[in-house]
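_Per-residue structure_
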Amino acid sequence: MPNKMRALSRAVACAIAVPALILPTAFGALAPAAAASVSTLADFEGGAPTGFFAYGSAGYGVLDVAPGSPDARPGQTSPTKVLSYGFNITAAGSFGGVGHNFATAGDWTGFQGVSYWLRGSGNGSALQFEIFDGGANSDSSERFDYTITDDVAGWREIQIPWASFTRATDYQPGGAPNDGLNLTTMWGYALPAARGADTVLVDDIALYSAADVTATATLSASTYEVIEGRAAAVEVRLNVAPTTPITVDYATSDGTAGATDYTSSTGTLTFAAGQTTQSISVATTDDAAEEPSETLAVTLSNPVGAALGSPSAATLTILDNDAAPVGPPTGRTLLVENFEAPLPVGSAGAVQVGWFAAQDPSSTVGFASTDALPAPVPADPPTQGNTALSADFTVQSFGVVVNNFTNDTASAWTTQDWSSYEGIGFWMYGNGSGTRLFLDIEDNRNPGSTTDDAERFVVEYTDNWTGWKFQQFDFADFVRKNINNNAPNDGLGLTDVHGFALGALRTPGTQTFYYDDVLLYGQAAEVPLTVGFDRAGYEVTEGADATATVRLNRVATEPVTVAFQTEESAARTATEDLPATQGRDFTAASGTVTIPAGQREATITVPTLQNAKHEVDETFLVALTNPVGAEFGFVRTATVSIQDDDAIDKALVEDFESYPWLFDTEGGLDLALRETAADTGYAGADAHENVLDIAYDDGAKLVRDFAAGQDWSAYKGLSFWYNGEGTGDKVTVSVADNEAPDPGPSDWVQSWSDEFEGPAGAPANPDNWSYETGGWGWGNDELQYYTDSTDNAALDGNGNLVITAREIDPATTDLVCWYGPCTNTSARLISEQKQEFEYGRIESRVQVPKGSGIWPAVWTLGNDFREVGWPQTGEIDVMEFVGRLPNEIFGTIHGPGYSGGNSIGNTYTFDVPVSDDWHTFSMEWTPERIDWFVDGIQYHSATPADVAPNEWVYDHPFSLLTNVAVGGNFGGAPGADLVFPQSLTVDYIRVFQAADTAERFEAKFVDNKVGWRQVTIPFADLRRSKDQPAGAPKDGLTLTDVNGYGFAFTGTGAASLDKVTLLQTLPPKGCVKPGKPCRKE
């Protein structure tokens, strides 16, 4: 469940840690089951269905396939047609796919999932299946997807149950709902290409159910429109193809329309076997009277062989066409484009400027200025010549004519300031075609951009009139439109408008529209002058100066000042980054910055500090306060991520820069971490060097057991800095070498556990757990802010850890989440740098919360995730539960090429809700295999063959996590059944592994010097220890699989330790020069 991608595209499906099902077949695909009911969406026998489209780097055709040919399906006995779909998603930023937009929405609630036949090449490319749920139409519906890898050459049938779909993270239309997969209003589907290049065949896309689905007859919509004088077509449809004829009666009835306005229509529709749609025709009367639009009702009744579904009644509106056109609003206007001059065409670098067309690969768009108009524009005198824009749209998915503002030579992308106007309008000649149309505004771009990353805002309207009409839209009616171009997300500012576009969606045939006199109108309420950062986050290389830009939303006539200060980040701002430390990683900075009159921006510079140590990227904040002359804008606090530039020192075993939680202690031993001053440490110490202070009693031990064996065979010895007291006491240095072979799960013993014993209200044991904090969405658009408060995670006094998600008032909280003031709090605990494990059985007994939108988990994450990122680090989910699927639990792995919606996992389904009782979840993990169990029942396994040709990334140590998320891409939107607070109660987390059998070797040195010295232990001096664990090998010091090391003390005293390092070359014996390594005598 970690990691938010910094750039998302169609090619990078990163619904981070969203477990979807790849059912346990040899192919990693969904195994087809016998379906009692099937409703075909597309069989391609009549070609591509109406509304089918392609986009991006993809295209399609329909092929004839003869039986017995190389492309024939198994068992095919007659000629058939299939879809041929090609794509190339190999270039950075590329995307593409095919899809099917429905003219009317369908109800899929009676089905269990979607199926299709796929003929792949087995080359490892990947396809998603994406469904369009809810909203007013397919372009405003919520996207859910599932990914299939093309790892099989030949035909196979794929079935995807609804539970496997997760909310898409690479694309959601502007205004899309976020209310989970409802299935009641489905507007279409797509097959986006997720990666690779391939040509595949697709056939028989259908809905399926293992049970019989009752046929229902419904109208395709609850409202229809028709222009006066035309006949309305009211579609009636069945949700499933019948095997025997079905009939249903229909009738019209008066509303505000009467007998003089339309012809009454009654009758019976008969659906033949296999037929799913019929149409009712209602004729209307064309009169010359100007009148309001009028309505009538169309009603279904008396179905035979089916039930009535919803809607079974609809309102039909007759649109009057006799009123004279209403022109532009009176008052203040500004003409933007009247098409009287030639349309400029050019480029500014890689960006087209002036006028151009864009469309999906299945569509065509043409445009030109013309004076051959179907009728004069009402605003122009009949005797005066006039030129307008003519645009021809033949559109399957989308087509658009774009005007990117430019200069006189069409060589630069220029801007206009529309911020003082209320709205935009234009004359348009309509055809009454019912085509959905849209107007885009291209607002501001990122500072310094050389690409088309203009933020888009859109308003839609319908071609439901004939002749000229002045269309006008207040700017308040526009909504943000995400086209995955890395645009700013700072609202419709209108101070830097880069252009506009006139578009159409799915035209019936070719439609020619005419446009004229694009103008701005009205006086907008004065937009306050605002000041803020020009972006939410910056990056800087360690040691360089970070520069943050403070920007006004427009040029001011007076200077604007704002105070700023740097701050340490208390919460996480990204999965990989850790908080930076003031004075060690960056220099504190504060002051006031002034933006002079007539300018829009100024910069803040913050020095960062260089060191020679490799560390993860670290983040600090720059916050603005006390603006003078302006209000705060969109971003008042920005993050600065310091990018580390130091190479990993592979010979460095331990540097003690953080508390050594991974060390075990025996006997009387107190540890403390201390930062040394530059003049009090050892020779060569960093300016900010942490060392470990040790106070010991006789016989005390400090031991580090490695979660995974390390290969030290290329080194000659072990070196470390030691600050002694010169007591003459001996210190024993031990090395745990190789172990006996792992006996397997049946002989594993408990190696660690947290039983969560302690008083009620106490936090989780800090020796085992850290509380992660923050509200940045955690890669999944989650709603909660994770806190370190015991209100959200604490012991209950009965041997349990209770993680509680709570609802808070966003109007009163100081907690800020990615979407604004937070609505929920919860907790997330991680054992990073405290407990880590490679292989074994991880087991947890828990009782999960309930309610749609709740998402608890017990899981593991690779311990190198801050270095390599997610999903390269690997993730193993021991248990995930989402409240919207109350009877199911998930076990999943995520790795490179199979993460998020393409992860490999399975579910176990209970007969009753999971939350009704306690359950024990476990995962058995070996180098060759991972198995998942619930209450002792195995329900899933994964092996390297299942992820091939991708990498198996589970042969290294992992940390433990447990948390409760709210909402998110997999958790889904909180439902009405989610009542807060909700808690995950954890009885225990236990780890079982092979018993410790590592062979021990040791050597001694004497604390014979006061102060710091560098001690070297040659491996040749190590001797086999007298005390050995049961079953230890006796094969000599191999150093190829070192399992740990440690120190044992004699006497009572104190010492300091730092920089444990492997040496490839041994120094000469004795301390030859100060600061040089000293071998023991």
The CA atoms of residues 229 and 287 lie 8 Å apart.
